[in-house]
Structures are given as structure tokens and as C-alpha cells.
């Protein structure tokens, strides 16, 4: 049987990371390696040629999910003319019906926090998740009003907790009027605070 080229190996690994990143966000960390490999179009037997364990895969999938989030956040803010407009773009871009309906391609915080919280503290996904969370906190801190630099991180933490909490509750009540009510109330509150701080 011919050996797989390095390019093909990298392509296969990326396919596994993308499939697992989506599936873990949609279905939780209990998704089997066999199901991930099938979704990536690969055989179960090839898994250990790419990852030493499922724990390593979970960590890589989480990192991939955060990279996607960072890129979305960057795109939302890159054309903003001010901190306030960048701040508003992050809030408005997060609390949408599209994100609510698409956990597999949206924020890993809302999709994975509960599962990651159930993992043992020494599991690699815990550090990856915390590192990703810190980067998103930093992004939100950077768009806070410059009038209170000492309170900027506190504000970012509070706002991120509101965004993620609202999304989790909106997904849990999807299909009911309450779901939209939760998202809209959180969005209005955060945008008011954003405007008041500018």
C-alpha cells in the first residue's frame, strides 16, 4: 500500500480537526472517535496516525473552534471606526438567531463550557479552553471605553458572561418566544452599557 504524502497527512488531520470541532460543539465531548473519523471521510483505524488519544483530539478540536471564533471577532471589528462601534459589532454579531441555530460553527464558549467543566482538571482541553477564553476576554477588553482602563477587564468579563449565558439559555429555549426575548434583552442591555461608557 503506498504511503500517504505529508500534504495528504496534513489535509487528513485538518479534516479530523474540523469534523471533531463541529461535532463536539453540536453533540458534546462524548462523540466517539469512530463517528468523528467517519464524518472526516476517514477510517477509524487511521486515527492514531494523527492523534495519540481522544484527549489530544478534544484539545485540538477546541483550539480549532477558538481559532474560528478569533477570526470571526477580528472580521467584525476590523472596519470599525471607533471602539464603541467595534464593541457594538461584537455584541450584535454574537447574539443572533443564526448563532443560536448553529452551535457547530459558532462560539465554543457557549457550546463547550459545560462539557469542559466536567473534564478532570489535568485534561489538556481545560488549558486550551482557558487560553481561548483569555484571548476572547482580551479582545473584549480592548474595545472597552478608555475612560476606565482599570475596570475594562471587569467589564469585559461581565459582558462575556452575559453573552455566553444568554446564548446558552436561548438555545435551551429555542422554538419558544422566550428564546428571542432572552437574546434581545441581553443585546439591549449590553448595547446600552456600551453607549453609556463611550
Structural key phrases:
198 residues; mainly alpha; 9 helices; 72% helix
Pairing-aware structural class of the strands and helices? mainly alpha
Q: What does the radius of gyration come to?
A: 19 Å
Secondary-structure element series: HHHHHHHHH
Distance between the termini: 64 Å
Write the layout of secondary structure elements.
Layout: H1 6-27, H2 33-39, H3 54-77, H4 83-94, H5 97-101, H6 108-118, H7 124-142, H8 152-172, H9 177-197
Helix pairs in contact: 1-3, 3-7, 4-9, 6-7, 7-8, 8-9
Description:
The structure is a single chain. With 198 residues, the chain is mainly alpha-helical. It is built from nine helices and no strands. It has helices spanning 6-27, 33-39, 54-77, 83-94, 97-101, 108-118, 124-142, 152-172, 177-197. Helix 8 (152-172) packs antiparallel against helix 9. The longest helix is centred in the first third of the chain and has 24 residues, at 54-77. The model has no long low-confidence stretch (mean pLDDT 93).
